[in-house]
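Subject: sequence -> structure tokens, single chain

Hey, anyone have a minute? Need the predicted structure for the following. Not urgent.
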Amino acid sequence: MTTTQTIARVFGVVFLLVGLLGFVTVPSSGLLLGIFPVNTLHHIVHLAIGAALLAMSGTHSGARSISTIVGATYLLVGILGFITPNFFGLMPIHGNDIWLHLLSGAVLLYAGMAGPADATATRRI
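Reply:
Had a minute. Here:
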């Protein structure tokens, strides 16, 4: 398994856990862990992204593709958090979510773009 695959897999598991945790623990305040604004759509998006990352992490090329797509999207979402904090009325992406989206996006985009395109050229873990 390549480093890119491992990163995609780890992020996939984390996104799935965060999505599930949101359905189980978010109080009426709408804050996950008391600091991240979320809603039901946000939880569903986390579950979908987690599932996509896990599904695509089986191959190096799949992990590169999904990491690049999700990373770039999350960087955009982080920036949008400054412009439209409630993502056009659909879900909250403001406050601490901005920083988490920017950090997650940067890591995933780096994982998707920094390594070699060919898994055979990548050191295996």
